[in-house]
Amino acid sequence: MASERLESTRQALREAMAQAERAAELARLLDAAQARIADAERAVGELRDVRERLAEAEERLAEARTAEAALRRELAEQRYQTEVARWKLSSVQVARWSRIGDAIKTGKSNPVRLARGLRGAARPAQRPAAPKRQPVPEPRDQARPALPGAAFQATTSTRTLDGASFRLKPFRVPTGPNTRPHLTAAVVADPHAEALLRYEWRQTTGFTPRDFARVLAAEVPHLLLVESVTQGPWAEELREPGEGLRALLAWCAERGIRTVFWHTGGEVADLAAAAGLFEHIVTARTASVQEWGAVLATAEPEPGRRAPSLGLLPFAVQPRVHNPLPLASGRFDRVLSLEELLPGHLSYPDVLTSYRWPKAVDCPPGTETWRLAELAACGTPIGAPEGGEPDGRRAHAALRQAYASGTMTDKVDDLLDAVGLPSARPTLGISVIMLDRGDPERALALLAPQQGVVQLVLLSQSGDEGAAEEAERRARAVLDGHVGVVVRRADPGLTTGVLLDRALDLCEGDLVAVMDARDSYGEHYLADLARVFTFTTADIAGKAAYHAHLRDVGATVLRRPDAEYSYLPEVTGATLLGRRNVLRSLGFADLSEGWDEVLMRQCRTDGVKVFSADRYGYVCLRDHDADLLGSARLVEYGPAEPHALV
């Protein structure tokens, strides 16, 4: 009996020691997680401080430039008033009565001199020409910016609602790069249209009917695009075709430059005469196509000219300026009407700031489709949110739809094809490295609906070589031949990092994604993530904010919800999407756990930009994860897909 009690005591001690070891391990994991969270929060805080200081410096620079412009205007006015005073003095001096008085004064003691002076004063004298106000000259380094976005920044940092003023950190309109650096276009456009086009090619603007030959000769364009502008030096030329417009089109014809008239507003009848001088007419309004067709059918082209062709060039989302990048000052916690959001005095760069300001916008019926698309592309919910809380999933779906309906890049492709210019531009094909975790069918089901994939490199853990060959056959059948397939058996003796490094050497796409078949990915996951590369300068994208589901407790949690749409020190490895050449230069560490943390450290060391995208489209699935449980926010006890997959 004593021996049984002793054995029972020993067993209890062993279990207690095991429990203590597990508790110590959990405590260690918790401490490590808290340390990583603290490091990340410290890095985010430092980054936020740098961004705020940069925004303040840029704001001070903008204010200094505004003050400089005001001083230039004041100086020009003072010079003008000085010239006016001199003119008035000269006019008085040449007046007959003034000259007679001078003659009498100088000849009062000499009759001969008096007679000569009076004869001279009696002769008419030419009055000096009155001075004219001269335009205020711009500084030479600001007169004609070389990069898109330069000198096209927001100028109004305050908004007024119900008598209260709110100070915003303006959205910084990006400079370059452009989509087709091999193509140059001379463009006459209002600020809105110019913002849509400026990233599509090398763009020359600011020329006038008097100086176009000198300005355009510096870089002869391939295309002339003239919008139906209502202000500026070309507006009068378009209402009634003048010598300036005819000379510009003749100059283009001599050099084989395509000419396009873009109707975005105004009556067709008022613009028909000017538009008929161009080779091509495109309209932003589908409803006006029939009217333009009728005008062209009845109009007789001038001798030696062919009738212009007719097409569509609607307004569309420009990813470089219509994107969910947030304001540094955050969102205003109110739903605004469109009239409150966009008062008439705002310049277009200021409009881009306003788009990102409110938590939602209530748009009236009849709001232009392009306006709704621009708002949605900036991540702003449209319509009053139910229950007062913004619906992030609905806003994300609207953003995706705004891009799916066609970006300005897509529309310019169609225009270039129509006028006979090459529309070739870089694409972003994706090679996917997928670890199938012993379940190739699940891996293929996750990959099949993804868009933009040109190649699958499948690392199969499904037993022997025969199983790998069967996985390759199934992959080719499921992907229907439109995706290149490479299957390699994952040697169990190698770490995940080594496997990824070897798979990277087989990749051919411009971008490389790493996906893990034990997790869950929505059908739009890759398309949404690849969009990051159209509006950021990042080399690697991924998710620092994401949902996770822990099976042991049945809990869905949300990790780092404040980490969306920002440059951050790290993203999670199973959401990695990077430029192939950058990933090759970095390489993957010889580790199975933590290879992504080492990669992110190397990015920070080498100055590689890492961008965290939205929280949607990905779910981390784990049986148990103490780090996630301790560092994420509980969403609910239930599946994650209703919250994460849009």
UniProtKB/TrEMBL annotation:
Region annotated Disordered, chain positions: 118-149
Single annotated GO MF: transferase activity
Ranges that cross the membrane: none
Keywords: Coiled coil, Transferase
InterPro entries: Nucleotide-diphossugar_trans
Keyword Coiled coil: yes
Coiled-coil regions, chain positions: 3-74
Biased amino acid composition, Low complexity: 118-133
Record-given protein name: Family 2 glycosyl transferase
Lineage: Bacteria, Bacillati, Actinomycetota, Actinomycetes, Streptosporangiales
